[in-house]
Amino acid sequence: MIGSYYQIVKDGFLYEARCADINASIQSTEWCTGIQAFDSGNEYFKTPTNYQEYKSAQKEWDTKLFTKLAFEKQRSIISALSKGTVIKITKLVQYPWGTNGYYWAIRAELINTEGNLIEVELPTNSALAFPSWLQGYGVQALPQLKHEYLMQCKNAKCT
Questions:
Q1: Among 30, 95, 131, 147, which lies 20 to 30 A Cα-Cα from 19?
Q2: pLDDT of the chain, 159 residues: tens digit per residue
Q3: Would you say which domain of life the source belongs to (predicted)?
């Protein structure tokens, strides 16, 4: 899976995320850039339909999407992300999560329109980001990504 390319299937967004601190101990998090799809979730929790809907009620969406802990600034969406954007999986870690066991922490690189590489963490732990882009639970087998969010490509241009 590391080194594989995927194309984002739905319009989405980058946001200020709490991610697995893959170099630290159990249940430790760090700030990073997260990625998520617009118009995703279920009847109990749903992301905005698109960036315009988010911007029209940004404060309300920020409060709903990003739980603010004590002594923490309110997080928000950094930018919209177009479907068709290509990412490359760079890190795959079985990350300890207390009594829940382990989950897959998956990092990827994307190239933004300015040509800069941006490291993002895929939503794989519903406690940190919902909905998850993984099929199933646990780390007994290699992770399988949901086709609703990502399509595997043969190369960096997805041709």
A1: 147
A2: 999 999 999 999 999 988 888 877 666 778 889 999 999 988 788 999 999 999 999 999 999 998 888 888 889 999 999 999 999 999 998 887 777 778 888 999 996 666 678 999 999 877 667 888 998 877 888 999 999 999 999 877 776
A3: Bacteria
As a whole number of angstroms, the distance between CA 117 and CA 130 comes to 24
Give exposure, 73-104, as e/b (b: 16+ Cβ within 10 Å).
Answer: eebbbeeebeeebbbbbeebeebbbeeeeebb
- Up-side HSE of residue 86: CA atoms within 13 Å toward CB? 13
How do beta strands 117-121 and 29-37 pair?
A: parallel
The residue type found at 114 is E
Q: Is the separation of the CB atoms in 76 and 59 below 8 Å? A: no
Task: Identify the CA nearest to 155 among candidates 27, 2, 6, 1.
Answer: 6
Strand order in the sheet with 77-81: 77-81, 12-20, 29-37, 117-121, 102-111, 86-96, 5-8, 150-153
